[in-house]
Structure formats: structure tokens, C-alpha cells
Design a protein that fits this description.
Layout lengths: L2 H4 L26 E4 L3 E3 L5 E5 L11 E7 L5 E6 L5 E6 L5 E4 L11 E7 L5 E6 L5 E6 L5 E4 L11 E7 L5 E6 L5 E6 L5 E4 L11 E7 L5 E6 L5 E6 L5 E4 L11 E7 L5 E6 L5 E6 L4 E4 L5 E9 L5 E7 L4 E6 L4 E5 L11 E2 L3 E2 L5 E6 L5 E7 L1
Parallel strand pairs: 1-23, 2-27
Antiparallel strand pairs: 3-31, 4-5, 5-6, 6-7, 8-9, 9-10, 10-11, 12-13, 13-14, 14-15, 16-17, 17-18, 18-19, 20-21, 21-22, 22-23, 24-25, 25-26, 26-27, 28-30, 29-30, 30-31
């Protein structure tokens, strides 16, 4: 099973990375080391699960509830697809109360609507919405429910173009990318006050579906993401708050179109997680420290995996596909101990199982599981 085909695009809410479940070099001035490790493996301990559905979520295949992020206090953010396939954002409190919301101007038909993304410590959500013409626009929603929409200057106004938002840090600064009228991507950083800085990584292609894409941002304002060169190959990068950019590739990453290195997120220490696609289009997770050391790892019993999140303690989360095509979540401690897990309601047929997208400081993990029939339901896993 190719993760790039079954996971649509690192859950739309992480548009920077192209994934294979659904989901999308030489470090200048730094030592670059690649360590291929087997990682220690532990059976799942007695974790507890809270499973939930957003009000109004659809119950047919491809519909349901999709959590994306969880903050320090245990609030989650994400979106659901209703009975016609339109998306609606949601925020779920630590106690389980769910608020569903829509951004004014969001489309109301299949594939359109409001997509909730990352949530910071203050409960502010960064996301985007697709209008009735399939154009993307960014928004910020405060904990009190106030929504501010924005478009980056230069963003295109055609279908599949516009502003894609975003990672968000404790200060409310966001990172993402916009797609121009030629369908080329460019990175941006936007402060809580609305000041926007745009940028392009040297080496990024200038053709359609190429360019620079911003993803995660940490408390220091350091951004990670990927760029796509003129051959369609992806490469990771890290950008400091001052604008200095370092690019990198994981050893083993393929060099064909659609292959390469996908940086997805980072923690306060500047450790980056993501995945690379090899020459056979299989996905493998990695972490990269702030010093530039890259470690790739495996989850026993799986065919391919991606890493999607990392917390302040250095615990990584992500999910894998087994050889039977069933999805399962995993966590990996800073010491390298890997634990695989499945949400209790997850289906056991190919294309079903457990996905993970967010992890907070206490190690709580959130994401959707796909139950029998292809319906998505949300969960929070407490270790």
C-alpha cells in the first residue's frame, strides 16, 4: 500500500506534505549524519481512549470526524465531513464539549467548506476554507470564537489556488503557503498583528505544483516545510525567525518526481519530524535535530510509516501501513522506544485503522480512526 495514494494530502490540514496514507543533501554549515536504526519496540501499555464525533458529522464512507491537533490543556481542533461531504471546523474542550463552526464564505458542497487545523496554547486555531469556486483562504479563530480571514498578496483566485493555512505557535504567529495564479507555491509567515513575510527557498521550482510550502512553526518562530524542485522532487528546509534557510534531504530519499523528503512539524527544541519517499515510493519516518543530525527509524511489522508530530519531550507520533494495508498509530520516545497502537473502534480491513496527527506536552495523541465502512471518528489517546 502506498501512503501517498491512500492519505490524500497529510490530511488537507497539513497541505505542505504529500503523504502515502493519505496524507506532505548537505546541511549548509552543519554536520549531517544519517543513522538507520531498528528502534526498541514495546507492546502498548494500558492507555485510555476517548472517542468522539462532531455534531452533524456524516456516517457514510469518507465522512466523519477528523481531529488534527491537540494543545497543552487537551483541547483538540479539526474538522468533519457532513452527509454531503462538506467540511466544518470544530474545537473540542478537554472535558469533551464540541463546538462546530463555519467561516463565512466557505463552500457548502462536497470537498469544500471549513478546515480546522493547528491549535495553540491559548486555544487559537489556524485553518483555511474553500469557497464555492474551490479557492483557498486562511483564517484565525480565537478561543472566544472570533474569526479573522486573510489572503496573502499574490495568491491566485482560481480553483486550487489561494492561501493555505497553517501552523501556529504560542504567540499566534502562523506559517503556511500560498498558491499563485500559475499554481506555484510560496511560503509565508504571518504575525498575530497581521504582518506578512513571504519567501521562496533557493532551488524551488517555478512550474505548476512546484515551489515552497510552509508547515510547522515553533515558539522561537522557526519554520519547517518542504520545497518542490523543477523535477518534482521534494526537499526539506528549516527557516529561522530571522529568515536564514537551511535545506536538507534524508538519506534514502528517492530522486524521482513525487519522491524526496517531506518535513511536517517541529518542537520547541527545533527537532523536525516528517518522512521521505524512497525510489519505490514507500514512506519512511525521520527526525532531524536542530544540529542537523537526521535519524530514520522503523516500526516493526509495518510496510511504511510517516511521522506527523513531536512534543517538547521529543516523543514522536505518526502512523503506518501494515503489509495487509491496515493503518496503525505509533509513538516513539526520545530514547527510541516505539509503541504501536490501535484505537478500539478502528476497522481491520485494508484502508481502515488508526491515523495520528497531534501530540501534546503530556503525550496525549489525537487523530481519526477509520472504522468498518470507511467512516472517520475522532479519538484522544492518554498514555
Amino acid at each position: 500500500m502506498n501512503l501517498t495514494t491512500s492519505a490524500s494530502s497529510l490530511r488537507q490540514a497539513m497541505p505542505a506534505a504529500k503523504t502515502s496514507f493519505r496524507i506532505a543533501f548537505v546541511v549548509l554549515g552543519l554536520a549531517f549524519v544519517n543513522l538507520l536504526t531498528g528502534s526498541a519496540f514495546a507492546q502498548e501499555a494500558a492507555a485510555s481512549y476517548s472517542e468522539f464525533n462532531a455534531p452533524g458529522a456524516g456516517t457514510a464512507s469518507g465522512q466523519g470526524t477528523i481531529p488534527i491537533s491537540i494543545n497543552t490543556s487537551g483541547e483538540t481542533s479539526g474538522y468533519d465531513y457532513d452527509s454531503v461531504g462538506a467540511a466544518h471546523g470544530f474545537q473540542r474542550s478537554a472535558s469533551g464539549a464540541i463546538t462546530v463552526y463555519d467561516v463565512t464564505g466557505a463552500g457548502t458542497t462536497s470537498g469544500l467548506g471549513t478546515f480546522g487545523g493547528q491549535i495553540n496554547t491559548a486555544g487559537t486555531i489556524a485553518g483555511y476554507y474553500k469557497d464555492s469556486s474551490s479557492v483557498d483562504h486562511g483564517y484565525i479563530r480565537t478561543a472566544a470564537g472570533s474569526i479573522t480571514t486573510f489572503n496573502i498578496t499574490g495568491a491566485g483566485t482560481g480553483a486550487g489556488q489561494g492561501t493555505l493555512c497553517c501552523g501556529i505557535n504560542t504567540a499566534g504567529t502562523t506559517s503556511g503557503h500560498y498558491v499563485d495564479s500559475a499554481s506555484v507555491s510560496h511560503g509565508f509567515v504571518r504575525t498575530a498583528a497581521g504582518k506578512v513575510t513571504t519567501y521562496n527557498v533557493t532551488g524551488a521550482g517555478t512550474g505548476a505544483s512546484q515551489g515552497t510550502r510552509g508547515a510547522g512553526i515553533n515558539t522561537a518562530g522557526t519554520v519547517t516545510g518542504l520545497y518542490i524542485d523543477d523535477g518534482g522532487v521534494t526537499h526539506g528546509y528549516v527557516r529561522t525567525a530571522a529568515g536564514a534557510i537551511t535545506t536538507f534531504n534524508a538519506t534514502g530519499a528517492g530522486t524521482g518526481s513525487g519522491q524526496g523528503t517531506n518535513a511536517v512539524n517541529l518542537n520547541t527544541a527545533g527537532t523536525i519530524v516528517g518522512f521521505y519517499l524512497d525510489s519505490t515510493n514507500l514512506s519512511h519516518p525521520f527526525q532531524r535535530t536542530a544540529a542537523g543530525v537526521i535519524t530514520t527509524f522503523t516500526v516493526p511489522g509495518t510496510l511504511e510509516c510517516i511521522a506527523t508530530g513531536i512534543n517538547t519531550a521529543g516523543t514522536i507520533t505518526g502512523f503506518c501501513s501494515t503489509t495487509a494495508g491496515i493503518l496503525e498509530g505509533f509513538s516513539r520516545t526520545a530514547a527510541g522506544v516505539v509503541t504501536a497502537f490501535e484505537a478500539p473502534g478502528a476497522g481491520t480491513s485494508p484502508g481502515e485503522g488508526t491515523e495520528t496527527y497531534g501530540i501534546n506536552t503530556s503525550g496525549k495523541i489525537t487523530g481519526p480512526y477509520i472504522k468498518t465502512g470507511g467512516v472517520y471518528e475522532g479519538y484522544v489517546r492518554t498514555p
